[in-house]
Amino acid sequence: MEHRRCTHCRNPIRHATPIFVHADPEPSWFHPDCWAVVLAAKQKEYDEQIEVLGLDGLLAPYLKPAKEPAALMSSDPVPSL
Ligand SMILES: [Zn+2]
Fold first, then answer.
1. What is the whole-number distance in angstroms between the Cα of residue 21 and the centre of ligand 1?
2. Ligand 1 geometric centre to CA of 24 (Å)
3. Could you write out the DSSP letters of every residue in 64-76?
């Protein structure tokens, strides 16, 4: 039987309902407890970013482009007029 490993603590996940996260480059799995730790760390990071950057920090997660601008330009150059 296959056991997924928790991305946070690297231990096998036997919990009935592990947390699944769509992440790059591979999907991630977490124990619910570990996911809570990861989320708390992310939230703290976000709060600190807002303190430093103000509104820009608040909006940063919502303004990220789907692809890196450089990747977009190299694969599909926009003609200049
Ligand atoms: Zn874990």
1. 13
2. 19
3. --SS-HHHHHHHS
Residue where the block lists tokens 């039987």: 1
pLDDT tens for the chain, 81 residues long, are 567 899 999 999 886 777 887 766 777 899 999 999 999 999 999 899 889 999 888 888 787 666 555 555 555 555 556
Q: 4 burial class (0-12, 13-18, 19+ CB within 10 angstroms)?
A: middle
Whether the model clears a pTM of 0.70, i.e. scores above it, the answer is: no
Residue 64 alpha carbon to ligand 1 centre in Å = 28
Give 5's DSSP letter. Answer: B
Helices within 1-81 (DSSP H only): 32-53, 55-63, 69-75
6 C-alpha to center of ligand 1: Å? 4
The full set of domain ranges for the chain reads: 19-75
